[in-house]
Specification:
Layout (H helix, E strand, L loop, with lengths): L1 H18 L4 E4 L6 H10 L5 E7 L2 E6 L4 E4 L5 E5 L12 H10 L5 E7 L2 E6 L4 E4 L5 E5 L1
Antiparallel strand pairs: 1-2, 2-3, 3-4, 4-5, 5-6, 6-7, 7-8, 8-9
Length: 142
């Protein structure tokens, strides 16, 4: 119980400090680019947004349950961080899903991020994998 309260307090303080930044604006869900809204309604429909922000031309949605989604100015996803829950399967490129299944059959992807043309993946077993634009694994960290 103390851990949960501590995590919630940390979350609230982090969000308050972030909101105080000059170019960070709290917005409504409906102010997200349409493509971002569609993805979130389809894959996170059962989640309740705690805060939706826009910083420059990037958007971030943090859910009450702790999941986080980030999008670029076009509404294309750049990151899904689901903490300890699996990232929805449909959001993960098939080649990455297959490689994770082949390499770590019991692991699930809890975070996926697009960094330029590469993908970075974090698994629930602590492993991190990096893929190039052709979905070839180029790095593995524990």
């Amino acid at each position: 119980m103390k851990k949960i309260i501590g995590l919630m307090l940390t979350f609230v303080l982090t969000m308050c400090m972030s909101i105080m930044a000059d170019n960070l604006k709290v917005i409504t869900f409906n102010q997200l680019p349409m493509q971002a809204q569609t993805v979130l309604k389809q894959h996170f429909a059962d989640k309740v947004p705690a805060v939706v922000t826009m910083e420059g031309k990037e958007y971030k949605v943090v859910y009450q349950s702790g999941e986080k989604a980030e999008f670029n100015k076009k509404g294309e996803w750049t990151e899904f961080d689901c903490n300890l829950s699996p990232v929805p399967t449909a959001l993960i490129p098939e080649q990455i899903r297959a490689m994770v299944q082949q390499t770590f059959s019991t692991a699930t992807i809890i975070k996926i991020e697009r960094v330029r043309k590469n993908y970075e993946v974090k698994l629930n077993n602590g492993m991190e994998m990096k893929f190039n634009k052709r979905f070839k694994m180029i790095e593995l960290d524990d």
